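Record 1 of the preview.
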Amino acid sequence: MMVLNRILSVITTIAVIFFATSIDANGCGIATSKGTNEFDPLDVLVIGAGWSGLAAANKLHSVHSIKHFCVLEARDAIGGRSRTKMGALEPDLSTELGSAWVWEDTIITRIFKDAGLVSNEAPSYFSFSNMGLYYEPYGGLIENESEDGIWLRQEYEAFEDYAKQYATHDVTMQQILAWYMEDYPELDEVAKQAIKGIVCGTIHSEYGSYFRDADSEYLDGHLMPEFRIDFVAVPNGGFSRALEYFAAPFADHIQVNKQVLEVDYSATNRNEVVRVSALDRSTNETMTYYTRAVVCTVSLGVLKSGDLRFTPLLPPRKEKAIKEMGMGNINKCILYWDEETKDVSWWPSDKLELQLITEEDEDSMEWTYFINDQNHNGNRKNHIMTAWIGGAKADYWETKTDAETVEHVMKNIRRMFPPPINVPEPTNYLITRWKSDPFTRGTYHYHRAGVDTYANQDIMAEPVASKVFFAGEATNEGMSAPNAYESGERAVDDIMESNVLNSIFSIFPNRRPTCSRAAHRCQTDDDCCEGYTCQHRTAWGTIKRCASSLPGVWSIEAGGFGARPRTSPFRNKDY
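->
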């Protein structure tokens, strides 16, 4: 009788499964209708369609031929922090709010090349010799080979040597600067402000670090970086075109305007699935998805904010890593002058970087570092000057209005190009505020003093309960788009090495039929693969088979209890 009751219970459960999956639910776009209930879950749900999320989706799709996956993106477009805005400054002109440069010999470079988006411009080189130092009392530009230019370079190199000598993992960059000024009280005021300004440009505006807790040992090798970029994305339509090209093969698996609110990976969930709650920002309705595995690619800033809930809470070591790691902030004030209507005779075409040396400490790090985007060969027609700001100053200026920001930036530009030069107001502008962005809460992570960031990166990358996998630049060494991409692929490797996609249903508690999707074989000789599931030939005197069109669902085919043959209503459907 007990065996009969178990068989009847199984039949009842299967009937519920068939009924639930026959409902015309949305699922994940047109790619798959799975994920609408616990008994027909997605294989993988990816949270976030930045480079890490898209890399994960691409590997699921192209390498492992996983059909039933979904990517949920909170914004109305893919790309994450590689975000292009078209027509903001000029019709048909792309503007990069986040990523702008394409580094040499990376996967991102290859994607641009495959998409035919590589410009013919020569590489751009960031170095001291390509930087222009500007000081208003000296009349603006200080030529590198002038007596003053050579003197200021020597003063900065002396500070570099000092920083390398005293920088340690437990000492902040703010302490290094303070110690140097204390040890050399006779330092000329112009040299002092030049040092602060250059440090601001090379570190503050590059890494978004907060000087009050930035690891000086990590940063001392970046005080005057010498590096090259292959090209800028803007001349060929920006990062958005590369992203669209890359995501095209699996675009129907992506849903935008879906902000994930909670990831419930409780062990008590039916069928051991993960339940994901998301807000549809276009309808303001909450949706629920069910999946075997999750790849979480949200930024460190979002994890710090608690905007994404985990049930149960993440392990203490991961929570500790999230709390300890630094999340930086970098913003741009992008100014555009239309050469048809504005005087651009003052334009510094031969300078890639411009650094204003101020006369006061108070504003030495407030919008004093500029990049001349027109300097890139592919961008010669567009007179665009971008002011950069990072760290605590970036946070402060996010509270200011656009008008206040542009006024301050223009004041600094006019200090670099004093009378009789007349710098006109820009034709248009665009200002970023990444810390205030609810879907990033900053730009990327940085190394904090006294914190083992390398160890925390590894902890951040660790899966939780073999169900929730993590990717994103904060889970990898480095802070760039290529690093984010690599992390997405690594997360998929972690999934395939786990058993999460091998475990199908546990209707029979003592029998867990599995089919390795990588090796395409079952764990025991009594089982055999059918699609991505395993069927066990005999159990309790009953013949069972896996419904090939609905992997993981067992139906009673025939048995000693007079069960009649049953045809799955999903046999001719592609799920």
